[in-house]
Write a structure and sequence with these properties.
Blueprint lengths: L3 H4 L4 H13 L22 H15 L3 H11 L7 H8 L12 H4 L2 H6 L3 H13 L5 H18 L4 H12 L7 H4 L13 H10 L3 H10 L4 H12 L6
Helix pairs in contact: 2-3, 2-13, 2-14, 3-4, 4-5, 8-9, 9-10, 9-14, 12-13, 12-14, 13-14
């Protein structure tokens, strides 16, 4: 069961979009520091924002995920989509393409905002992923980010969030960003970005520090900051 009105409140959706915009200008730049201008004239939204809003639209309108992702992607071209997703957009009846890229996880934060139970979170996150990213790792990444968003928004401690992610998804979160920053290179898989995005949230003091940490490791900065930002967005209070 989902609460569509909760998606529209300040929280994970705004956090994810802001993270995308903040990280957009640093993709592949390897700045390796948390000290950078948070926004300037080169900051812009990317495919992360477009498809995050598409997922939110699916949840609020009860339209199939495949339809809204396809419609939004074609409506907003040239936003940095991956090659396989671009091909998917050219199909009239697109089918999943077995990807384990982080595109499934970057767009999933609205699921964590809308669902009312962890069972619903995991089921809905899986459905949102599998229309394109039907590889087990692509589905797993989406479920992990949606679960982290749901837990953070509903008041779970960072230690509880860490334990749930490790126990449920077998991700290794036993590292610090300081230890990987120098050697971290561009990677667009769920396996090498979802754990890093979650650790950025776990190490943070507030939203801004979370996004700065996410960007600071370099690589796919807009997507990592989008995933971190969705988790670190303002907490919903019941």
């Amino acid at each position: 069961m989902t609460d569509s009105t909760s998606i529209l409140k300040p929280g994970p959706l705004a956090g994810a979009i802001s993270g995308d915009v903040i990280g957009s200008k640093f993709e592949g730049a390897y700045i390796k520091t948390t000290e950078f201008p948070i926004l300037d004239e080169d900051s812009d939204f990317t495919d992360d924002t477009v498809l995050t809003i598409a997922v939110a639209d699916s949840l609020t309108s009860n339209k199939p995920f495949s339809d809204t992702l396809w419609e939004y992607g074609r409506r907003h071209p040239d936003r940095g989509y991956g090659g396989m997703f671009i091909s998917w957009l050219q199909e009239e009846r697109p089918k999943p393409y077995g990807s384990y890229g982080n595109g499934s996880a970057m767009r999933v934060s609205p699921v964590g905002a809308a669902c009312q139970s962890m069972e619903d979170v995991l089921e809905t996150a899986g459905r949102s992923a599998e229309v394109t990213h039907n590889h087990p790792e692509g589905i797993k990444g989406a479920k992990a980010i949606a679960a982290a968003v749901f837990l953070a928004q509903n008041g779970s401690s960072k230690e509880d969030i860490r334990n749930f992610i490790v126990r449920s998804f077998n991700y290794n979160l036993d590292f610090r960003l300081d230890d990987i920053r120098a050697g971290y290179e561009f990677n667009a898989t769920c396996q090498r970005t979802v754990p890093e995005a979650i650790v950025a949230f776990l190490e943070s003091d507030d939203y801004e520090s979370a996004v700065r940490l996410a960007v600071s490791i370099g690589g796919d900065t807009d997507t990592i900051a989008c995933m971190t930002g969705g988790t670190a967005g303002p907490v919903r209070r019941s």
